[in-house]
UniProtKB/TrEMBL annotation:
Residues 4-321 form the Isopropylmalate dehydrogenase-like domain. Keywords: Manganese, Metal-binding, NAD, Oxidoreductase. InterPro entries: ICDH/IPMDH, IsoPropMal-DH-like_dom. This is 3-isopropylmalate dehydrogenase. It comes from the Archaea. Its EC number is 1.1.1.85. GO terms for molecular function: 3-isopropylmalate dehydrogenase activity; metal ion binding. SUPFAM superfamilies: Isocitrate/Isopropylmalate dehydrogenase-like (SSF53659). Its cofactor is Mn(2+); Mg(2+).
Length: 325
């Protein structure tokens, strides 16, 4: 049975980086014998203009049928597509590894993995405007915290290292304290510490090596993973996986970057490394590793986009990596 992969190219630089990654995905699948059935769906700003909805019924149907979704960044309607997919399929853990790549200038040395809760917090979309007051609800549940903490536990056990829980329980004395306490309980027996999110932002720049597995709530995870990606060498390199119990979605951490769209200069590595994560999720760590090695080789050989000091185009990088896989 093939894996049913739904590709959503997205907006801005999305179609370019996804096209580049597809060269790699197809080359890897054929070389390593992974049976993929790839379909494509329109979703995002362009779909909104064309069909009046960012996630048209056809895209939804294909997403329902797929085993896994491979998605580029989306523009203004990103929340409508990305959060919808995360919530509809209960992709409750957002896995964001942050690691330097050899030969890429970085702010600091860093090697950690963020486990970001992915379906709760202010992302539930419970916002209200009552006259001159606006309110957003931050929702944290015991069940939601336990299941994402179990994912952090798995990574900590795999890496044999510490989990840092990030929160702001000194202000959110009920909500964030609940997340922290439930997570602590679920992580019992492991080496665990905790940090306020503001201090964590500082530490990620000052001493990023102190972090290993980082467990945090949805919004803090959103913000800190952009910061951490920049510390590691740039947002153009940062992959992610949205994982549930039976389905998953892989996508770069970065956004649609309309300012450079269509110029062929967007770095496809974040998307290509997201493809590596997809193969790992399929149980093919060998294929994931082969992609990572090919990415490192392409950088070493100078086949890289301008953001990391090269002069190659998005597609040239994708094709090169595909050719040496
Ligand atoms: C991310 C993105 C999304 C988020 C947006 C596009 C809804 O920034 O995946 O980090 O905030 O989660
Ligand atoms: Mn984000």
């Amino acid at each position: 049975m093939p894996y049913k992969v739904l590709v959503i190219p997205g907006d801005g630089v999305g179609p370019e980086v996804v096209e580049a990654a597809l060269y790699v995905i197809k080359a890897a699948a054929s070389k390593y014998g992974v049976d993929l059935e790839i379909k494509t769906a329109e979703a995002g700003d362009a779909a909104l203009r064309k069909y009046g909805t960012a996630m048209p019924p056809e895209a939804l149907k294909l997403a329902d049928e797929a085993d896994v979704i491979f998605k580029g960044p989306i523009g203004e309607s990103a929340y409508d597509v990305t959060s919808l997919i995360r919530m509809r399929y209960l992709l409750y853990a957002n896995i964001r590894p942050v690691k330097n790549l050899p030969g890429v200038p970085a702010v600091k040395e860093i090697d950690c993995i963020f486990v970001r809760e992915n379906v709760e917090d202010v992302y539930v979309g419970a916002e209200y405007r009552v006259g001159d007051v606006a309110i957003a609800l931050k929702v944290i549940t015991e069940k939601g915290t336990r299941r994402v903490a179990r994912v952090a536990r798995k990574y900590a056990e795999m890496r044999g290292r510490r989990v840092t829980i990030i929160h702001k329980a000194n202000v959110l004395r009920v909500v964030d304290a609940f997340f922290r306490d439930v997570a602590m309980e679920e992580l019992r027996g492991l080496e665990v510490d905790q940090m306020y999110v503001d201090a964590a932002a500082m530490e990620l720049v000052r001493n990023p090596k102190r972090f290993d597995v980082v467990l945090t709530t949805n919004q803090y995870g959103d913000i800190l993973t952009d910061l951490a990606a920049q510390v590691a060498g740039g947002i153009g390199l940062a992959p992610s996986g949205n994982i549930g119990d039976s389905k998953a979605m892989f996508e770069p951490v970065h956004g649609a970057a309309f300012d450079i769209a269509g110029k062929g200069i967007a770095n496809p590595i974040a998307t290509i490394l997201s493809a590596a994560m997809m193969f790992e999720w399929m149980g093919r760590k060998d294929v994931a590793n082969a992609i990572i090695v090919a990415v490192e080789k392409s950088i070493e050989k100078g086949i890289k986009t301008p953001d990391i000091g090269g002069d190659k185009s998005t597609i040239e990088v994708g094709k090169f990596i595909a050719s040496i896989i």
